[in-house]
Amino acid sequence: MAEGPIGHDRLCEIADDLIERWHSYLDREPVSKSIDLVRVGCLYGLAMNNTKLLDFIAQSHREGVSPLILMPLVRTAYETGITAQWIAQVQDAPNAWINESRRQSAGLVRSLRGSNNDTFRSAADQVERARVAYADLPGPASARTVATSFRQICDEIGVGADGSYQYYKLLCAFTHPSVDVADEYVAQDQTNPTTSLVALREPKFDATDAWLFLAVAATVWAQMSFQYRAKDNILRNFLRSVSRELGIVLDLKPTEKSWLRQNRSRD
What we know:
Distance between the termini: 55 Å
Mean pLDDT: 87
Helix content: 55-70%
Low-confidence stretches: none
Order of helices and strands: HHHHHHHHHEEHHH
Largest sheet: 2 strands, antiparallel
Strand content: under 5%
Oligomer: single chain
């Protein structure tokens, strides 16, 4: 197993600590009280999901599962961590994000109800039952546009995460059906490379810790985004110490582009 700057074993220990400390925090504070419950509800759900994803990713990584197989989960965790920071730190982000999600969810429910398949039709009820009944949420059109595009979200919360969207595109390249994915299972026959191929049963992808590192960093960002409102000193101090050890910026501050957009929307 190739090791990063802090080592494979230590990275796995940090992942375990993030999961354990998060649940210890919830044992201390099982109910969130805030005047900003819409934002808090979004951030808690994203942080909880990332923590569960990290649990699965870290365990699979220990067991020697190829990073290529884990890539879709790492991509989800990474996108979630940055999106959570955007929701936490950009004032009009929560309403825009919920409204856009509602719009997409409503389209999904309509499609499911129009299906000829009973299983798909019944899934529409499951989607609707899971929704939290937020009141109507006003939001500026400019933020709604940002909420539709992860690239624009990265542009608004990019300080401290240089190249964040490029990392995401790399994750996408090994998540979506692509030549990059197909090539992982094919080798050229050295005896006649132009006319024959060798079929592989395992991907060629290097067993590096880099992808676990991204999942760990994304979980730090997601958990910290919730702490901007929950403010538990024990968990916050732990997350600060982890971010220093990982060498990552803990707070992905809004960019100048974000501030300019928000200021224009107030005019």
